[in-house]
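Field reference: sequence -> structure
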Amino acid sequence: MSTEVKVPTLGESVTEATIGEWLKQPGEAVALDEPIASLETDKVAVEVPSPVAGVMGQQVVAVGDTVNVGAVIATIEAGKPAPAEAGGKAAAPAPASAAKAEAAAPAPAATGGEDAVVTLSPAVRRLVLEHGLDPSKIKGTGKDGRLTKEDVLAAAEAAPDAAPAPAAAPAPAAAPAASGAPGRQEERVKMTRLRQTIARRLKSAQDTAAMLTTFNDVDMTAVIEARGRYKDLFEKKHGVRLGFMGFFTKAACLALKDIPAVNGRIDGDEIVYNNYMDISVAVSGPSGLVVPVIRNAESLSFAGIEKTIGDFGKRAKEGTLTMDDMTGGTFTISNGGVFGSLMSTPIINPPQSAVLGLHRIEDRPVAIDGQVVIRPMMYLALSYDHRLIDGREAVTFLKTIKEAIEDPTRLLIDL
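Structure field:
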């Protein structure tokens, strides 16, 4: 007896997804509610749980296929998995897609048993091949111990002398490679649904909004001193580190209160002003930057903000952010400084009307009271929709943030 596995409801307005990877192969035992596949949606990866316990049956669709909500993607068979043969493979034959995946990845160490089986996503498999690594010898930090790209890169750095694995048979190229030029191969990889959505939304923002960016710089001395003075007490009391994002989120809420247009949006021929502040914060995940939302940030304490951001960062790395985490947002803060960016012009996250870009802190000479001194400075950038926000409002907004960061007492007395 077999049970069909269908694509679950993915969230409001989301009707389809892409098969990102199979977490279970035909013939493997499956527990009730155990994830068997990962789906890539427009915003996040969603795992598909098994509706029953049994044995993984047929995979109806392949990695990269687009599926609609409610579509059958696999079957779960009743019973227990067949005993392994001498070669270590299950008696049940795997479909062509699984066989190709097995052939593409290096064989796991012959330790026997289920511990030798390593499930790899396409991106991780490609890195394993490039660096000639044995995936069974790499400790995975992803959900359920799965390997991430960061795990493979770290293993490659730890073993720089590892010989590259023999190249698999190349896929048909658009044009023949030049003879005797081994370093000029090309590789074509289908864009993930998330990357396609990012590309479409960013281009749409440029095409739709009258986007403009204004800049300022901020002296980080006061915030750095406050953080250094209280970070240990803060972590001891609240169980979370005191970071810079808490200060900037609080400063943004203060500025949004003074300049409500920055927290609004255009809807047809109307302007919508939000009386709440849902701040989208960019965090890094395995598939790139994602922007979960801090709800009602204006009513949260520093500790509440830092705990929320820390939780987002942890779940982004694990790939467990939900659709609800990503939905909404009235204003975005993007911190390119963690990657070393000195200055940028961030792109608005529609339907929002503005985004604040933070950058790296570096010591620079500045003139204060007629004297040249060295101070830790950061460039701030505010990209905004000029259809809604005037230049005066944008400059005032950025100036308010600068003043609050340079004198954090303003954050406590709402000034």
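Note: The first strand starts at residue 2 and ends at 6.
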